[in-house]
Specification:
The protein contains twelve helices and 22 strands. By secondary structure, it is of the alpha+beta class. The structure holds flavin-adenine dinucleotide.
Length: 483
């Protein structure tokens, strides 16, 4: 039995597990997918919002501004790329000007540092490629960009390094309570026991809450489609460029990513399915058209991939973090839509405080280590650093992914460091293998061989992303395909 089971290994669940691992507690992170960061935390805009969008006085406003402030320290401790690049919300007409005033007012009330309205010309001085039609902009110097899945992976890894356990492939489908102990049952019939339960199941947080008798929550999935452009477009803008928000979201943005690509999107459309993440021609056309309204020279022909993320919207559009109304020792986190990523470090702290109020003993652990040792990034090293690394381990001298300059040594580390990758996409998210222009066309065969060797499995058993996502079906020479 563990003290706390956290359901869902997105950025919120992973940071809660890390926060709990500061204390003398046994912690179990349960995730239905084969890896961490497989839900919304993998597919979003990756912006650390300054905090001027949220309604003053809301929990969202408080945790956004707090989370933004905490992001530097958390990302430094976890060796995750984060950049405070600042953001601009553009105005094109009188109505937009009024929206900027509302956002400025909210920003001031929410305590966002340095937020101010600047003229169109000042905005173009900061960003020469902005449209001539821009009349004014809201500038927020504390806006930032981060890698959302790296943050999730690193948070889960640091929690594990500090004693937390991760169980993937565990879809919670049943819960029963007896003598102060929760028995949690998976879809496959596996059972684990815990004294406290944290529901951080994102889009499925309403379904998970219902397992504990709380049937009032409702999550509306809202799709957002994106285009990711090649690294040679990454310097098109240096700030994050927003358009004015609408009631459906923060509008289409144009932003550099921490890895040097350019990201355009997202659209905003309610849908029924909590699983359908297909992109559509119409959605991507909308992204391209609206991105060009802000930055007319944006080169959408340089797209290297497109993807869809699903927002977890609640009716009140505020974060809900509260104990179950029907079950003892259960904390629900639901409606964690944008700015959930920005707020995640503060959400985690807030959730653990709530657990303390609910009776969880929070005795600090003397040997908690907040620092996560990163996988070395060969592409970012100078000649001297590279030579030293190769002397220590010659596998760092073997380039596997040419587009992103990823070495065999990095892939090997990704397969053994907490939380270990089990498949090609897991290696990709941890090292960027296959994330370049050729999308893995050259490096996949070698990466598969390394995965098979390190995991001690046949190459045919290596999957793209777990389950039945097989990569190899048989030989094309010497006898053809075998089933
Ligand atoms: C289009 C879009 C753009 C966004 N842009 C931004 C942005 O720029 N900045 C920002 O701050 N925020 C942004 N967000 C919001 C942000 O991405 C989310 O708030 C955040 O990722 C939510 O994290 P989470 O851990 O709550 O959810 P998830 O990452 O979805 O994690 C929940 C996990 O629970 C697991 N799970 C579900 N059911 C079960 C079960 N029964 N048993 C076990 N596990 C289960 C899932 O597999 C999943 O891994 C955006 C969201 C979207 C969709």
């Amino acid at each position: 039995m563990v003290d706390v089971a956290v359901i869902g290994a997105g950025v919120v669940g992973a940071l809660i597990a890390r926060e709990l691992s500061r204390y003398q507690l046994s912690v179990l992170l349960l995730e239905k997918a084969d890896d961490v960061a497989m839900g919304t935390s993998k597919a979003n805009s990756a912006i650390v919002h300054a905090g001027f969008d949220c309604v003053p006085g809301s929990l969202m406003a408080k945790l956004n501004v707090d989370g933004n402030r905490m992001m530097e320290k958390v990302t430094e401790e976890l060796s995750v790329p984060f950049k405070r690049n600042g953001s601009l919300v553009l105005a094109f007409d009188e109505q937009d000007n009024e929206t900027l005033k509302t956002l400025l007012d909210r920003g001031i009330k929410n305590g966002v540092p340095g937020v101010r309205i600047i003229s169109g010309d000042e905005a173009r001085e900061m960003e020469p490629r902005l449209s001539e039609a821009v009349t004014a902009a809201l500038y927020a110097p504390t806006g930032g960009i981060v890698c959302p899945y790296e943050l999730t992976i690193a948070a889960a890894g640091n929690a594990m390094d500090n004693g937390a356990e991760l169980k993937t492939g565990f879809t919670l489908t049943g819960a029963s309570y007896e003598n102060g102990v929760w028995t949690l049952t998976s879809a496959e019939g596996e059972q684990v026991q815990a004294r406290f339960v944290v529901n951080a199941a994102g889009l499925m947080s309403d379904t998970v809450a219902a397992l504990f008798g709380d049937t009032d929550y409702q999550i509306q999935p809202r799709r957002g489609e994106y285009m990711l452009l090649d690294r040679d477009q990454g310097k098109t803008v240096s700030h994050t460029i927003f358009q004015c928000p609408t009631k459906m979201g923060k509008g289409i943005l144009v932003t550099p990513t921490v890895d040097g690509n350019l990201l355009l999107g997202p659209t905003s459309e309610n849908q029924e399915s909590k699983e359908d993440v297909a992109t559509t021609a119409e959605g991507l056309r909308t992204v391209a058209q609206l991105a060009a309204k802000s930055v007319p020279s944006v080169n959408t022909r340089a797209v290297i991939t497109s993807f869809t993320g699903l927002r977890s919207c609640s009716a009140g559009h505020d974060f809900i973090i509260e104990p179950s109304a029907h079950s003892e020792h259960v904390l629900h986190l639901t409606g964690i839509e944008s700015p959930g990523l920005s707020s995640a470090p503060a959400i985690a702290q807030y959730a653990v405080e709530k657990l303390g109020e609910m009776g969880l003993e929070l005795a600090p652990k003397a040997d908690f280590d907040p620092i996560r040792k990163p996988i070395p990034k060969f592409r970012e090293m100078n000649e001297e650093e590279r030579r030293k690394l190769i002397e220590e381990d010659s596998r760092f001298g073997q380039i596997i992914c040419r587009c992103e300059t990823v070495t065999e040594g990095e892939i090997v580390r990704a397969l053994h460091q907490n939380p270990p990758a089990h498949d090609l996409d897991g290696v990709k998210r941890r090292t960027r293998t296959g994330m370049g222009r050729c999308s893995g066309g050259f490096c996949t065969p070698q990466a598969v061989e390394i995965i098979a060797r390190e995991l001690g499995i046949p190459v045919e058993a290596v999957t793209k992303c777990g389950g039945s996502s097989k990569l190899l079906f048989g030989k094309t020479k010497e006898g053809g395909r075998d089933e």
